[in-house]
TrEMBL record:
Gene3D superfamilies: Carbon-nitrogen hydrolase. It comes from the Eukaryota. GO terms for molecular function: omega-amidase activity. InterPro entries: C-N_Hydrolase (IPR003010), C-N_Hydrolase_sf (IPR036526), Nit1/2_C-N_Hydrolase (IPR045254). Residues 18-278 form the CN hydrolase domain. This is Nitrilase. One of its GO terms (biological process) is asparagine metabolic process. GO terms for cellular component: mitochondrion. Keywords: Hydrolase.
Amino acid sequence: MSSSTPNKVPSSPPASPFKLALCQTPVTLDKEENIAVARDYLMRAAAAGASLAVLPECFNCPYDTACFREYAEELPAVGFKPTEDHSSPSLKMLRQTAQETKMFIVGGSVPEIANDGNIYNSSLSVSPDGTVVAKHRKAHLFDIDVPGGIRFKESDVLSPGGSATAFFAPEIDCTVGVGICYDVRFPELAMLQARELGAKVLVFPGAFNMTTGPAHWELLLRGRALDNQVFVAACSPSRSEGGDGYTAWGHSMVVDPWGTVLASADEKPALVVTTIDLGRLDTVRKSIPTSQQRREDIYRLQSVP
Ligand SMILES: NC(=O)CC(=O)C(=O)O
């Protein structure tokens, strides 16, 4: 797996605390309306003092494989400059809002159509000057079949991304990792973001559902926070029926490196704002120094012939 490299190694001592906002927006069939609502929540996040704001998975589109191709947009690569024109209405909104508010925005995710016709579930992150600083394509596709629960097959329509993603945000002196929803179930990805890319906050736009949400959402977020001793912030759409009846769990949540839930929403539309103090990360890592106690010599997985 290749990894995108953050644009700077974070300096020490840790930066001042900053505010992070999760925008748990309602998502409907109306793409234009979804984008306008997302902007409205982002403006409210800025008014609440946020420096980093996050949108949900598929913020412009119902979470429904039947919708992905119709709603898909072409998206640019990392490094795309604010001066360059682009056709994507979602990117236009993200850039304009980031520039106006001076926030870093992790733009949830939107269906992306690539030059070769493949569709991806992709997240763009934009810096306060409007530059695209990260692009993550959902690496693990949500193909599941839970008897009596839910069946979903993203791979019917989507192709998987092939890298781990993180970007450095100088204004808050923090490297931010980005994964999308099902990616959170794979500890190796989070470990790569934290250990090799230096992420201190892992952000997951995600839309769990009424079967896996109550069972696994909080458990996974707290697990990834604890096993990497990082902050984890996950942003869901609010609970509304998708085109084929997919019902999002909601419960957007921020967890600290000790595994404590700092802030969370219920299932309704919500703006969750909380303070991130990266000093907490150093305290936890000093108290329980698991990163220095790893036994790499005994972790080798051996394949069975
Ligand atoms: N929707 C997803 O990608 C993941 C999910 O709902 C789950 O893992 O459960």
